[in-house]
């Protein structure tokens, strides 16, 4: 238990991280290439594209199954959010709960109830276990999640009627 003697390196790094997120004292901010800042739906869609690119990079390195699974869930959520933001009056503030994306996917007609619930269950039962639990992710799980993330992303992109900014094409 800490008694006020937390390591200086941790405290310094924490201060720097907080400043970075607040964009304090850093001069010109260098934003990630490829992430659109035009509209929230475009931002979420291009984040999903970049996450899928990371998945491909990790998969090519073999063995990073935990990271692949985590990033795939993120790409699925960003893809659903992009569709919701483009096609409804939803706002980014509506998507502060991971499971809400899956619930919303059915409510707005992107997926049938059974499909949306199955994705939500996959998230709640397996993502939590692979990340927080004692389970060891497998190559098969990582590959299956990669396929699912790509399929969800491509379907969401194809349903957006505002024109695509997808980086995956």
Task: Explain how this protein is built.
- With 169 residues, this protein is mainly α.
- It has a single domain, classed as Up-down Bundle (Four Helix Bundle (Hemerythrin (Met), subunit A)).
- Helix content is 66%, strand content 0%.
- The chain is built from 6 helices and no strands.
- Helix 3 (65-87) packs across helix 4 (98-107) and helix 4 runs antiparallel to helix 5.
- The longest helix has 23 residues, at 65-87.
- The protein is globular, with a radius of gyration of 18 Å.
Q: SS-based structural class?
A: mainly alpha
Number of strands: 0
CATH superfamily: Nucleotidyltransferases  domain 2
Query: Which architecture name does CATH use?
Result: Up-down Bundle
**What portion of the residues fall into strands of 2 or more residues?**
under 5%
Rg on CA atoms, Å: 18 Å
Number of domains: 1
Query: What string gives the helices and strands in order?
Result: HHHHHH
- Could you tell me how far the N terminus lies from the C terminus, measured between alpha carbons in angstroms? 51 Å
- CATH top level assignment: Mainly Alpha
* Poorly predicted segments: none
As for the CATH topology, it is Four Helix Bundle (Hemerythrin (Met), subunit A)
Proportion of residues in helical segments: 55-70%
| Large-scale geometry | globular
Major sheet summary line: none
How many distinct helices?
A: 6
